[in-house]
Amino acid sequence: MSTYTQSVLIAFFMTIILSCILFMPWLIYTYRKYGYLSISKTIIMFSFIFYFLSALCLVLLPFPSTRDTCSLQSPETVHMNLRLFQFIEDILKDSGVVITNPSTWLALTKQQAFFQVFFNFLLLMPFGVYLRYFLRERRYWKRAFLLSFLLTLFYEVTQGTGIYGIFNCAYRIFDVDDLLLNSVGALLGFFLAPIIWALFPSHKEVEAKAAEMEKRDIVKPISILLAFIIDLLLAHIIWLIIGAFTGYSGIFELIVKSVLYMLFFVGIPSVTNGATLGMRFMRFTMVNKNGKSVIWQSWRRCVAIIATACVAEAITTIGSMQLDMDSPFYVWQIAFSLLAVLAKVALTIVMVIHVIRVIASGGQRRFYIDQYADLIATRKK
């Protein structure tokens, strides 16, 4: 049992790492598609990742201590079972069970072969449950069975080939009984899935909420934040390319970034009627509720962004000043460095609190750059 626990723990930590990598793309996808973060779909997606990794770890782990697994096995070692229903014979062997005597059947549960069959049956049952969610309708049960069979075939081939040659001999056998048990278990999960998915909003309910938000022209603050992050990332990627070719930094970096900010936050909105590239990707635009020029208001937004960047750069510059210890201003340098650290921490805290408050307001508050520019987000073209 400790082997199973260790495999699940490894899958858990792999899920955490993978979730950190996928969370931002998932946020962008779900806000782009629905206009809000569907908690139910998020839970389902990341639980599926955890399940899939757990199943994979249970199938492959623990790895042998050496790649030369042939040296650990006798020449008579069997690497493949092509006899269907061999598991029945394995369970009944030395069990003392008499088929015609039900009182002896309980002895089956004491057989290791029985538990191996039982766990193989359960292994892909959750996969069938997830397939019912993704395929939606019961009439796709043949498709679900085929996908389950292909997945378990992938597992068996991976085991039978020593993970495609990484190990010179298979350390687990290719078993046709596993193909049967896994596939049937997944199919049972597919038919039982409605009991579980009744606890979660259906696809239609999620889509209906998305349609209602679009009808009411609601743009969540996270959508605005994600669009802003996309634009910043694009600008910084361009700067990294320029910086790599020129080798310059410092004030040159600030000037180039400021020009890029003007391009992304003023130039592009000027020709797209108020939308940056990030906004276009997230399917909304910015307008002034009083009918003022979007171009002028975009300039104000850009000024707020550049001003924030300049303050952060000034704090960083002051904090990185280095003077010789013999300099009469060395004590002042220590003091300014300390103040710069405190200012950087304070600025970070203020920005984090501001973002949290805007997101928590559900749209009642605006980000300070939009508040200063007097811009509001809309999905109306």
Explain what you see.
By secondary structure, the chain is mainly α. The protein folds into 3 domains: 1-62, no CATH class; 78-213, no CATH class; 217-378, no CATH class. It is 68% helix and 3% strand. The chain is built from 15 helices and 4 strands. The protein has helices spanning 2-34, 39-60, 86-92, 112-123, 125-135, 141-160, 162-165, 176-197, 203-215, 221-246, 251-271, 277-282, 294-319, 330-360, 368-373, and strands at 80-81, 174-175, 285-287, 376-378. The strands form 2 sheets. A two-stranded parallel ribbon has the order 1-2. A two-stranded antiparallel ribbon has the order 3-4. α1 runs antiparallel to α2 (39-60) and α13 packs antiparallel against α14 (330-360). The two termini are 59 Å apart. The model has no long low-confidence stretch (mean pLDDT 88).
Tell me the strand percentage band: under 5%
Q: Number of DSSP helices?
A: 15
Q: SSE order in H/E notation? A: HHEHHHHHEHHHHHEHHHE
Q: From the alpha carbons, calculate the radius of gyration and give it in angstroms.
A: 30 Å
Biggest sheet record? 2 strands, parallel
Oligomeric organization of the protein chains:
single chain
In short:
With 381 residues, this protein is mostly helical. It has 3 domains: 1-62, no CATH class; 78-213, no CATH class; 217-378, no CATH class.
